[in-house]
Design brief:
The chain has a single domain, classed as 3-Layer(aba) Sandwich (Glutaredoxin). Helices cover 49% and strands 10% of the residues. The radius of gyration is 18 Å and the shape is globular.
């Protein structure tokens, strides 16, 4: 049990707390947050339902590096930034070649495969696959903008690759992904990672520590009747 978690699994309502979780799979802060969402699952089990959504942060990495990182060294400067960021996080190991020798062109293909997994399997499977894709990129330095790499990862997770491919070919995954991107704008999501709770009234954004995240979850589960504003 993590510090600050005083409530038992049986207290409060039996209705799970839905957390809409917005990330880009290439985002280093989402990789750092990976252990925190795993800890939420370990602590709360079925009491919390994580709904994974995709945010467009690394849709075009070459353009991003040529504009936002142009005066800071481009890809190499961003690689230095990423390695400096993770230096203080033991649970967020990264490969030495990350963003130096392995430079995905886009996060969109990974997001498409994630939405396909959601459609052919379940939201829980999508969350699991997102973790596997992140591990493949950040730890193994695999190019997760390559569809063949992504489908290989999905196959290793025992997902039906033929069904995933059909969903990709039909455009269903693309439609679901674009819906995610639209919802991101509607909720005013600022970036990755973002946790949206309480019907959109409560948003945690960025490098949120587990104590803060867990405290918000615990309070909402303890007092679900107070979620709406009655003023």
């Amino acid at each position: 049990m993590h510090p600050g978690k005083a409530m038992t699994q049986t207290e409060g309502t039996d209705t799970p707390l839905v957390i809409d979780y917005y990330t880009d799979v290439l985002c280093i802060w989402a990789w750092i947050a990976q252990r925190r969402i795993e800890a939420l699952a370990d602590d709360w089990h079925e009491r919390v339902s994580l709904q994974h959504h995709c945010v467009n942060v690394f849709g075009d990495t070459r353009r991003k590096m040529a504009t936002q990182w142009a005066d800071r060294g481009g890809f190499d400067g961003y690689a230095d930034h990423v390695h400096a960021v993770v230096a203080g996080y033991e649970t967020a190991a990264v490969h030495p070649g990350l963003w130096r020798t392995v430079r995905p062109t886009t996060s969109a293909n990974a997001h498409l495969v994630l939405k396909a997994a959601d459609l052919v399997a379940s939201p829980a499977v999508m969350v699991d696959l997102a973790g596997r894709i992140r591990h493949a990129f950040f730890v193994e330095a695999r190019d997760v903008s390559d569809l063949s790499v992504l489908l290989s990862i999905a196959g290793q997770a025992d997902l039906p690759v033929v069904d995933l491919q059909h969903t990709l070919n039909s455009g269903e995954a693309a439609a679901a992904l674009l819906s995610d991107y639209d919802t991101t704008e509607q909720h005013g999501i600022r970036g990755s990672p973002s946790w949206v709770m309480n019907g959109g009234r409560q948003i945690l954004y960025g490098n949120v520590g587990y104590r803060v995240l867990n405290a918000n979850v615990e309070e909402l589960l303890r007092h679900p009747e107070q979620e709406a504003s009655w003023c």
